[in-house]
Each structure stands twice: as structure tokens, then as C-alpha cells.
Amino acid sequence: MLFWEDFHEGHVATCGRYVVGREEIIAFAREYDPDPIHLDDSAAEATRLGGLSASGWHVCAIFMRLLADGLLINADSMGSPGIEEVRFLRPVHPGAVLKLRRAVLETRDSKSRPEMGLVKFRFELIDATDAIVFELIGVIMFGRRNPGARLA
Which of 21, 71, 105, 141 lies in disulfide reach of 120, CB 3.0 to 4.6 Å? Predict the structure, then answer.
């Protein structure tokens, strides 16, 4: 189990493997983002995306799956106060193999809640060519192993 004290500025870790399926892209789009670039091969090929690609919201859901499996399920996570930035840098096409990289940007203890600390991360989804396709910067609250202990 990971606690707030286990995170240190500058630490980078990579986890997970997710293969994006064509039918999955279409099913997600039908339900949540029915733009033709996510539903129809010929419509998508006529765009700058160069073919059928996952909705940005679908990519966010894939990110969340990898984050849960690779970090949150094995940590004393207490949720998030919010996301600062989300960027979709490259299209995610069927067959893309994605992994999650996380970098700790900053840690701070909570002044008002001694049982928790906050960690600011840069998260990236990386494809098989090591290209970054998605980036998210946000904060996660974690329980403390030693509630109430202050940093010097």
C-alpha cells in the first residue's frame, strides 16, 4: 500500500499496457461522442487525424483504467481536488498499444487535514513508438502513513 510519504518530487514510473480496439472505439463513440471521425472509417480518413480514432473522452477513460490498475488500487488514495490540464497530442487509432507514465511534480502536506497529503503529477499515455499521445496534470490526495506528522 502506497501512502503520501512514498511519493517524491522527480520520481518517474511507467505501468500498464492497453490495446485499443476498433470496435471499442466505435462502441464508446456511439454511446458518448458520436462524431463521424470516431464512427466511420471513410469520414475519419478525410480528416487530419488520418483514420478512425478514439474520442478524447475515450482516451481519458483508458487513462483512468491504467491509473487505477497501476497506482490507485494499491494506494491510500483519497480522490482528487481537480485536474489542471488535459492535452490530446496525437490521435489514438485502432491497435494502438498504450502505457501510462507518471512523474511527481510536487508534494505537500495538507495544512487543514493532517491525515492526508497532496501529490501533483504529470501523467502521459505513451504509444508503442514512445510518442506521447495524451497528457494530464492533476493532483491526487493520499492518506498519510503517519497522520499529523509535519515535514521539517
Answer: 105
Torsion, Cα of 64, 70, 73, 79 (10° steps) = -50
Q: How many residues does the chain have?
A: 152
Which of these, 146, 22, 19, lies nearest to 94 by C-alpha position? 22
The DSSP secondary structure of 5-19, one letter per residue, reads GG--TT-EEEEEEEE
Strands 132-143 and 82-88: antiparallel
Query: CA–CA separation, 22 vs 151, rounded Å?
Result: 49
Could you report the per-residue pLDDT of 59-114, keeping only the tens digit for each? 999 999 999 999 999 999 999 999 999 999 999 999 999 999 999 999 999 989 99
**Domains in the chain, CATH or no CATH each:** 4-20+55-143 (3.10.129.10)
Q: How many CB atoms lie within 10 A of CB 151?
A: 8
pTM: 0.93
DSSP letters, 125-137, are EE-TTS-EEEEEE
